[in-house]
Amino acid sequence: MEGDMMIQATEIAGGQSQRFRDALKFADLPADDIDLPGRTFFEFTLDSETVAWGGFETHGTDGLLRSLVVVSTFRSKGVGVAVLRVIEAKAAEQGIARFHLLTTTASGFFKQQGYAVNQRGSAPPLISQTEQFRGLCPSSACYMCKALSANARK
Questions:
Q1: Taking the complete model, does pTM exceed 0.85, yes or no?
Q2: Residue 51: is its pLDDT beyond 80?
Q3: What's the mean pLDDT in 99-106?
Q4: Does the structure show a pLDDT above 60 at 143?
Q5: Rounded distance, CA 129 to CA 123, Å?
Q6: Residue 80 region, left (φ>0) first, then alpha (ψ -120 to 50), else beta?
Q7: Once rounded to an integer, what is the mean pLDDT over residues 90-114?
Q8: Running DSSP on this structure, what letter comes out for residue 72?
Q9: What is the mean pLDDT of residues 38-64?
Q10: Which residue stretches of the chain are H helix?
Q11: Where are the domains of the chain?
C-alpha cells in the first residue's frame, strides 16, 4: 500500500479539533495543550477517508513532533510512514531543521524512520520547556531526535 499512497493533509482549524481530540484520548495521548499557539495539526485522508492525525510545535528551528495517531484499521500498512513524511516535509517548509519527540510506545517505529534516542536532558531549552516535556508526557517517555533532510525542505 505504501508505494502508491496519496495521503492528503488538511490543517485542522479550531472547530474541527473535536475528532482529533477524541482520537488522541482514544490512543491515550495528551490533548490538553493542542489549542496553544505555535502548534500545527493535520487530519490525513486517503481516498477521502480519515486515516490519521498529527502535527508539530514550532520552536525556532526546532520542532516537536506531536501526537501521530493512525486509525487502527490502517496500521501496519505504511500509513504511519507516509503521514510522518508529510509532517516532516511541512515542518521543514516552515524552517524546522530538527525534529524532537517523546514516545512511550513507538520508539521502534521512529528508530526505523531515522530518529535517534537521546538523553532527555540533552534537549534544547525551548524543547525541554514545552508542555510535553514539563508534564504532559511521563518522565519515562523516550526522547528522540532527527535532523530533517535538505530534500524535505524543498
A1: yes
A2: yes
A3: 92
A4: yes
A5: 9
A6: alpha
A7: 94
A8: G
A9: 92
A10: 17-26, 79-93, 107-112, 125-128, 131
A11: 2-153
- Here the cell at position 14 is 479550531
Distance between CA atoms of residues 21 and 83, nearest Å: 18
**Residue type, position 25, single letter:** K
Q: Quick one: how many helices (H) and strands (E) in the chain?
A: 5, 7
C-alpha span between 114 and 89 (Å, rounded): 14
How many CB atoms lie under 10 A from the CB of residue 59? 19
Q: Are 2 and 25 in contact (CB under 8 A)?
A: no
Average pLDDT of span 56-72: 92
Cβ atoms of 39 and 31 within 8 Å: the answer is no
Beta carbons within 8 Å of 118's beta carbon, 6+ residues apart:
143, 144, 145
Q: Cβ distance 69 to 12 under 8 Å?
A: no
The residue among 64, 82, 144 whose CA lies nearest residue 107 is 144
pLDDT in tens, 11-25: 987 666 788 888 888
Between the two ends of the chain, the Cα-to-Cα distance in Å is 25
What contacts 13, CB < 8 A, 6 or more positions away?
none
At the top level of CATH, which class does the domain 2-153 belong to? alpha beta
pLDDT band at 101 (very low <50, low <70, confident <90, very high): very high
